[in-house]
Amino acid sequence: MATRGEFSSRLGFILAASGSAVGLGNIWGFPSQVASNGGAAFVLMYLILAFLLAYPVLMAELLIGRATKANVVDALGQVSRGISGRLVGFWGIITVSLILAFYGIVGGWMLSHTLEAVVKLAGMEQLAQWLVAFSTERNLLFCALFMLLTVGIVSGGVVNGIERWSVRLMPTLFVIMLLLFGYVMTQQGAIEGLKVYLLPDFSQALNPDLLISAMGQAFFSMSLGVGTMLIYGSYVSHSENLPRLGAAVSLVDIGVAVLAGLLIIPAMYVALHNGVQIFAEDGKLLAEDTLIFTVLPSLFAAMGFVGTIVALAFFLLMSIAALTSSISMLEVPVSYVVEKHQVQRTKAVWLIAAAILTLSCIIILNFEALFGFVIALTTRYSQPLLGLMLCLFAGWVWRRNEILQELKLGDAGAEHSLFWRIWPWYVKFVCPLIIVLMFYRSL
User: Fold this and answer.
1) For the structural domain made of 10-442, what CATH number should be given?
2) Is 157 left (phi over 0), alpha (psi -120 to 50) or beta?
3) What pTM value is reported for the model?
4) Torsion of CA 166, 172, 177, 182, to 10 degrees
5) What residue ranges are annotated as transmembrane (predicted)?
6) Quick one: DSSP state of residue 204?
């Protein structure tokens, strides 16, 4: 039996877990949600809900992971002392594999747009056109390339793969974001976008649709429910203070989302100033793929040579964000196969990645029918229900005394902490109630 990996430093864990949480959901999803939900009011409710809902569920995953030191199936099996936990673990593995199947496609788009800027600088216009035109060949090629990058990192294991690359990629992501933000703020129209982003219309704050969207965003942006945080928690040393580590991960994740909004919403108003259409027929800001692949590239094109450099930085940023999440997703099924079936790590990584790439290819070849369907199935339905199951295990099934003993390993005075006074009943009653309400509304 191979020994389990463990993060070698606190910073390594925080950057790896934040990298898992910081994905396209923060940099693409969050500004899109802000754009379509009335600006600053959404930002305000998102910040509140991220702490009220996402942090307690994140802690449930980290605690279960570290206490059991096992893959998601065995960890939930140990906590539930029965078949129910193992079944939920398998459900988590299937869900995360399906998420990675569509995520790999989107990650491939980010890579092809990054390469397009490079090719443009080299003056190869025809190739540049092909790289950004939607085609089955391009989608298959770049999805495979993106999966290869993911495989390369995960094969290295916890310290030499995941931690080593997270410690490099996450600071790079921050630097690119700050440079882009600094540049965008020097452009005309940016201040108007900043006002939309930062000045809330409080009448909108309690709009039920806005609340549901903010809750969903908080949940998905921290990659909760599918076992990624549980696995990362299982690689944390028993001497660490988990509530503090969890808070640090939450803060980095929320910080990146807010920073992404600070970059993208003003950039949209810069685009408007340059004659690019940023509003849909109904008067709402354009969001999601239209925002990333139409509005912003039109802005970059209007900026000439500098625009190509900015496009390169922006899509490189998106590629890094996609990659830091994809490595944590692939680790979920890999850790199970390595521990349960004693398969050598590199072999397990290649086999599972090949299976997921096959799913991606099926989605690409039936794009209209499957792409949106798989996204809705996993992120709108499966993920919240898995989050609910985790809350039920942590709040109702797992013995409170065992949880307290686990917390005491990293903090001798844990039972007198604010965290211990609030979290056990909060994850038992409040979180399940909020998730059920959110799920009911989304149906």
Assistant:
1) 1.20.1740.10
2) left
3) 0.91
4) 160
5) 12-31, 43-64, 85-106, 139-162, 169-190, 210-233, 245-271, 291-317, 349-375, 381-398, 418-440
6) G
